[in-house]
Amino acid sequence: MTQKSEGYIELEWTCPSCQSNNPGPQKTCQNCGSPQPDDVTFHLPGEAKLKTDEATAQMAAAGPDIHCPYCGSRNPGNAAECAQCGGDLTGGTRRQAGQVVGAFSTVPGPQVTCANCGHLNPASAQQCVQCGSPLIRPQNAVQAETPPTAKRRLPIIPIAIGLVAICGLFFLLSSLFKTETATGIVQQVNWSRVIKIEALQDVSKNDFRADIPANAKIGSCTKKYDRTQDQPAPVSTEVCGTPYVVDKGSGLGEVVKDCSYRVYEDYCEYKVQDWVLIDQPSLQGSDFNPQWPNPNLQSYQRIGEQDEIYTIQFMSNDKLLTYKTSDYDTFSRCQIGTNWNLEVSVTGQVVSISPIQ
Ligand SMILES: [Zn+2]
Ligand SMILES: [Zn+2]
Ligand SMILES: [Zn+2]
Q: How many beta carbons lie within 10 A of that of residue 278, not counting itself?
């Protein structure tokens, strides 16, 4: 994810002495004059106004405020000397920064009723517009919107269902793989041998340009979604999450959103020489002398995969049971009338055979 900045908003802090709300960058309470405490927590204002001007950006760039190591006064992040006592700020403590304050919204919060005179104040008011009393805002209502860290709860019920399903599947499979032992006498055999004949031909395919072989002839291309990445690309669409506010440590909050990029690349038709299946000649028989088909090949042809299947039928307790194998050696030992041990599955398939000693 790439974090993109939208601008800044002034956060607020609540004076611990009088409960008044104050603009974030203001270092003393506008109601009672108390200093902003060292461990102040900034919160979202009742009504956020996005600032994108250069002065605000520079103020934010100064970094978190520094507390003077001599008098404790709070100074801008880029100050060298304390504005209060003139002390060197080199050894001062910087305020914490980087915490997510909450989701960004320009929609004003609820109106605030003055506890003193009962006047209904707009969300943006930090003191009662009627009588000047501190306004105690239901901050939790604003902060409750804070999205990013939802607690993960263990999905107990789906896990339980999953466990039951796995146990059930295990029992089903174990019963399917259960076999019974029987004996049988070879009644009849069949063999079948198949070969694949392939020819080198021009084949039309589609792929992303980067994955097309160098010797291919590329036809028409269109843009197609390929991947999602953190950085923009020549042809990409930006996908961003909900903007949220990050504490800059100076009373300002940066409005940011996490973005990723859906990248589109050339997806092309191309022609390339490739081996194509053109025929599958086969031979069958019911003797012990299996043969491979033997076609005349052109120079641009080749033999691909070869397949051999041997079918042996056993008489077992008046029932005809069938065993199929690709092993010629086993087949050649299944002479008519010989006796064999059979492993038979619940579905009546012979899964393995061994000669009776
Ligand atoms: Zn105060
Ligand atoms: Zn100082
Ligand atoms: Zn009032």
A: 12
Closest listed ligand to the CA of 121: 3
In this structure, what are the phi and psi dihedrals at residue 106, rounded to the nearest 5 degrees?
Answer: -95, 0
Which one of the ligands is nearest to 133 CA? Answer: 3
Which pairs from 66-70 meet CB under 8 Å and 24+ separation? 66/92, 66/93, 66/94, 66/95, 67/38, 67/92, 67/93, 67/94, 67/95, 68/92, 69/93
Which pLDDT score, from 0 to 100, does residue 145 have?
Answer: 44
pLDDT at 208 over 90: yes
DSSP letter at 49? -
> What is the distance in A from the centroid of ligand 1 to the CA of 137?
14
Residue 80 CA, ligand 2 centroid: distance in Å: 11
What are the backbone angles phi and psi of residue 312, rounded to the nearest 5°?
Answer: -120, 130
Q: What pLDDT score was predicted for residue 138?
A: 64
Q: Is the pLDDT of residue 197 over 90?
A: yes
Which whole number is the average pLDDT over 89-114? 91
Residue type, 116: N
Amino acid at 11: L
pTM of the model: 0.60
Query: Who contacts 198 (Cβ-Cβ below 8 Å, separation ≥6)?
Result: 275, 276, 277, 278, 301, 302, 303, 304
Residue found by looking up tokens 């269902």 in the block: 161
Mapped onto helix, strand or coil, the DSSP state of residue 196 is strand
CA of 33 to the centre of ligand 1 (A): 6
Note the residue count of the chain: 357
Q: Sorting pLDDT into bands at 50, 70 and 90, what band is 140?
A: very low
Q: How many Å lie between the centroid of ligand 1 and the Cα of residue 32?
A: 4
pLDDT at 179: 84
Confidence band, pLDDT 50/70/90 cuts, at residue 146: very low
